[in-house]
Amino acid sequence: MLLKGLRDIASRQKWVAIAMATIVLGGILSVVSPVFLTLSNFQAILVQASVTSIMAIGMTFIILTAGIDISVGAILFVTSALFAQLMISTESYLLAFGVTIICATSLGALNGILVIRFAVSPLITTLATYSIYRGAAIHLTGAQNIPVPREMGFLGNGRILGVPVPILILIAVTILGIYVLNRTRLGVYARAIGNSERSAKETNLPVGRVTVAIYAFSGFVTGIAGLVLLARVGGLQSGIGIGIEFTVIAAVILGGTKLTGGSGTVIGSVIGAIFLVLIDNGLNLMNASPYIYDIVRGSVLLAAVAIDRYSAVRQRAALDAQRASLIAS
Amino acid sequence: MKKLLGAVASVAIVAATQVAADGITIGLSVDQLFESRVAVNNGIHAEAQDRGYDVIEVVADGDAQQQNAQIQSLIAQGVDAILVCAVDQNTIERALIAAKRAGIPVVAYDRDLPDSTVVQSFVGPDSLVDGRLAGEYTAAALAAYEGQINIVELIGALNDQNGIDRSLGFREGIASLENVNIIEVPTDWASDRALSGTQNAFQATPDIAAVFAATDTHIPAVETVLTDLGRLVPVGEEGHVVITGVNGSRDGYDAVMSGTADAFVVMGTEATGRTGVDLVARILAGETVERTNYVGGHLYTAADAEANAAKIWGAPK
User: Fold this and answer.
1) Nearest CA of chain A to the CA of B224: how many Å?
2) B203–A293: do the CB atoms touch at under 8 Å?
3) What are the start-end ranges of the E strands in B52-148?
4) Does residue A9 register a pLDDT over 70?
5) Every domain of chain A and the residues it spans
6) Residue B86 and residue B164 share a domain
7) Which range marks the domain in which residue B51 is found?
8) Is B114 found in the same domain as B163?
9) Is B6's pLDDT higher than 70?
10) CB atoms within 10 A of CB B236
11) Which pLDDT belongs to residue B16?
12) Residue A140's pLDDT is what?
């Protein structure tokens, strides 16, 4: 009965599947390592997942429109580089924060404009901007490491009422993402575009403006994530953000957002990111051989995708059966 | 797409660059740009300038296929010699063979290509010794430690010989310690992975006595974790976690000077770059050179780092 109930919920809310997988993985880890079920470890997991989760929230909107942004790691790098340089030259947090967030939002918007303007696959467009943004950041910094002021560590290490600041930022961005997706026209339009761009255009939805706004939103949250990451690692390094786009996209897909667009949730993407961190956390807690990390990560991802696919097939079969019985009656 | 960009870049380079007809031109093929690589490259440029050589530098951004195309373009431009830091030996070997056929000598720097049939000489760090220096320091610092000694090792890329050798050297260096438990954390040279891995390691094993970072650019991430846990105790005080690293970056220098880290092994980046050009010059002059040329690292602590800042490539100048 309980299983059937959970299955029904999972079929309606796709994020429940990844939530259940996360709980199962957590259960296994709590047996394997006594340290797992501690408050400090939970905090560590959420803090580690904060950067990917924040970026995944923005990516959710993009994938909802059946788009993709490969350049988010480069946006993270270029905005972090800009922040570090501005801090050196102006020593003004306000200016550095402001310009960095505006820059991140603008780079995201530029991606959206290029996707709409050239009507080329978002994958190709953002692959090109990935190269441009990353190159610009390397040029800006001369590939040098730039330490950030110690006070900035508050963003990465600080606590408010005992809660780590990265977790608070994650909660705030999650609430913002859920609100925008479920309570604003932007969210509704994003789903509509993902379901059918042609229908969206035929019903006079502002497809171009919505697409630009969504890529800009992703850029905005990536800028925030960049600042959190910069504060946590203590400085800018030229390798920052390399490959993070794949982790972010994996989190979104694991969270139940369809790559083909139209369906997905913010909370699912956040849980997807936490799930990915959980894998590393578990391997670290078990002091696993460094050579098996990639194998385990890949296998778990594959299993998660297979389970998701299996549940989708079952869901479709159930719907077909329901439809057949309705027709028969 | 990357291949296409690489080909376009190669054509542009061929079109834009005029190789000096009389002087010597070195083709510099770089795997990717980051702080210590730039420091070595600066040494190459400085030595080349001193000798009146031209340098054509191409950067592969970590893409072996792109590096392959770039080396082909350097050959097409008729460079006199190639200095290469390879992304991946197997992928570029074909291009290196083409260089050999064109009579262009190849010298590898920073990353050796031990199985290459083309590379005439290598100059770079002796990572085994660098790791051993850090290990011996750690062993001395923990000589009086009682009970099991838990050491976190932040490993570099698992397919990078320098990272592997630093790890092996470190283990040789701590061989005198007994009852050691090494907690390996793979980082792939990424500080965000070093950060999360260190955090997890301290969750699983709170009584960690030491951290060894394959690159000292990870030390600020270790500092973040220790700050989170309220365990950031300066060197020499009760409860201090012994921290060492290899590289010689500003991060390492600052960490040692602030008392967060104990010691760091500084690579001779400028000497590596200058030696690379010197090897090229000697090969072009028909001299026989050593196949392997190591530039030894040096361990510094807070006691001598500031006085030797000029020798530490990452120290503020």
Assistant:
1) 6
2) no
3) 54-59, 81-84, 106-109, 121-125
4) no
5) 41-287, 293-319
6) no
7) 2-119
8) no
9) no
10) 9
11) 42
12) 87
Chain B, 198 to 237: residues with Cβ < 8 Å from chain A are 199-201, 203-205, 217, 220-221, 223-224, 227-228
CATH of domain A41-287: 1.10.3470
The answer to whether B29 and B82 have CB atoms below 8 angstroms apart is yes
Asked if B157 and B69 sit in the same domain, the reply is no
Place of tokens 């006199």: B80
Contacts 24+ apart (CB under 8 A), A177-184: A177/A57, A177/A58, A177/A60, A177/A61, A177/A221, A177/A266, A178/A266, A178/A267, A180/A61, A180/A217, A181/A60, A181/A61, A181/A64, A181/A265, A181/A266
Q: Decide which of B92, B119, B146 is a domain's last residue.
A: B119
B312 touching A, CB under 8 A? no
On whether residue B41 sits in a domain, the answer given is yes
Alpha carbons B27 and B33: distance in angstroms, whole number: 16
- Which pLDDT value is given to residue A309? 72
The answer to the question of residue B254 being in a domain is yes
Residues B151 and B241 reside in one and the same domain: yes
Does residue A99 carry a pLDDT above 90?
yes
Position B225 in a domain? yes
Percent of chain A with pLDDT over 70: 94
Domain count, chain B: 2
Residue of A nearest to B205 (CA): A285
User: B300: which 2 tokens?
Assistant: 């510094």
Cβ contacts from A onto B, under 8 A: 117
pLDDT at B79 > cutoff 50: yes
B235, B145: one domain: yes
pLDDT in tens, A223-277: 999 999 999 888 888 888 888 999 999 999 889 898 888 889 999 999 999 999 9
Written as one letter, the residue type at A85 is Q
pLDDT at B21 over 60: no
